[in-house]
Each structure stands twice: as structure tokens, then as C-alpha cells.
Amino acid sequence: MKIWELKSDNNFGDFQLANFDQDKHYFKENCVKKRNWNTPQLYSIDKGPKGDNPHFWGSTGTLAFSKRSVETLEDLITSQVEILPIFNQENDGEFFLINILNALDAVDISHSIEKKLTTGLLIGYTKLAFKPELLKESDIFHLRLHTNKRIMSTRIFVTDTFRNRVEDANLLGFLFEEVWSETSNAELS
After folding, report:
1. pTM of the full predicted structure?
2. 78-129 per-position pLDDT tens digit
3. CB atoms < 10 A from the CB of 178, how many?
4. For the purposes of burial, counting CB atoms within 10 Å of the CB of 83, is it exposed (0-12), middle (13-18) or buried (19 or more)?
5. Is residue 189 classed as helix, strand or coil in its secondary structure?
6. Based on C-alpha coordinates, what's the Rg of the chain?
7. Of 19, 48, 70, 97, which is most buried with the most CB atoms under 10 A?
8. Cβ pair 58, 22 in contact under 8 A
9. DSSP assignments along 11-23, one per residue
10. CA 62, CA 34: separation in Å to the nearest integer?
11. 3-state DSSP assignment of residue 186
12. Are the beta carbons of 44 and 15 closer than 8 angstroms?
């Protein structure tokens, strides 16, 4: 098993909130949004092709997926995310925001390297290792810091299953950076 950090390829367009001041409250916390969702309007800064995972400038840790991406990945991610409709001002395809609700406390601290401020406050990890038993049935997720359980909402992680599904469907605009392999944990033990 491998874990990948998911990013958007900047060569495939982007989205921004059309009414940032009015709609920014949706993205203040990593929590359920569907019950208060009022379908915000989005527009493109870069008028290039959007692909299937355009970058969303409204919030780090929130994804924008094409309808094709949602149809391809829905059965893998439905229990771990909210799929939220948006109004695309350019009317050049149907897109959704993906709010990741799944936040795991799955860092293997004995094989990870912490990133701390000079004050000693843990803010992330420069090298990650995972507890494989805690990754079962989680194909997309954020991580919780092991010290204070705060969610690292700026980074999105996915499994081989997710990555393979994207690649098999030839979805555009997805970048994957390998951050961990189960075999690397075994080598370190």
C-alpha cells in the first residue's frame, strides 16, 4: 500500500469564489457544510481548459471536481466527503466542491519527522509514516496532528485505489506525490 498527496495540476484551470466576502464563511473550518450550503458562484481566473480537478482558490484542502471525476470516484469517497454543487459562471461544465470530512489520527510518530516552530509547536511533518491498520476503508483523508489532534487541512492524502481509479479513467488535472509506502515502514522497523 502507498499513500499519495493529491494536488491540482495548475495547467488545467482553476476556480475562485465570485463573492468571496459573502461565501468565505463556508471554508473557515473542516466541518459539515451541506446543511447550510447555498450553492456559491465560482468563476475562472485562468480561462484555460479545466480538466477534472481544477485548482480551487477559495480554500486550501477543498477540491473542485468535474462531474466526470465525481462519477468515477463517488463509490470510493461518498462516505468520506461531501459533494457540494457550485454555480459555474462560465457554464463550461458541471463542477462540484469536495469537502473532505475524513480526518485520521494515523501518523506513525516513531517513523515520521516532525516540523515544529521555534516555540516547539508541531505544525506538520517533513516525512510521514502511517499506521496501516488505521488506513483501511479510507481512500481520501486529511491527517490529525498527533500532539493536539488538530486537522492538517492543507494537505490531502489518497490511497493507491484512488490514484489507480483516476489514472484508469484518464482524468485530467490530478497530481500525485508519493509520501509513504507500507514497505518503507517495514524497512525502518
Report:
1. 0.90
2. 999 999 999 887 767 889 999 999 999 999 999 999 888 999 888 888 899 9
3. 12
4. middle
5. coil
6. 17
7. 97
8. no
9. GG-EEEETTHHHH
10. 14
11. helix
12. yes
On the CB side of 85, how many CA atoms lie within 13 Å of its CA? Answer: 5
Q: Which portions of the chain are predicted below pLDDT 50? A: 188-189
C-alpha cell at 47: 480561462
Q: Name residues whose C-beta falls within 8 Å of residue 85's C-beta, 6 or more positions apart in sequence.
A: 37, 39, 96
Residues 148, 122: contact at Cβ < 8 Å?
A: yes
For every residue of 21-88, DSSP letters joined together read HHHGGGGSSSS--GGG----EEE-SS-S--TTS-EETT-TTEEEEEHHHHHHHHHHHTTTEEEEE-EE
Spatial contact of 107 and 120, defined as CB atoms under 8 Å apart = no
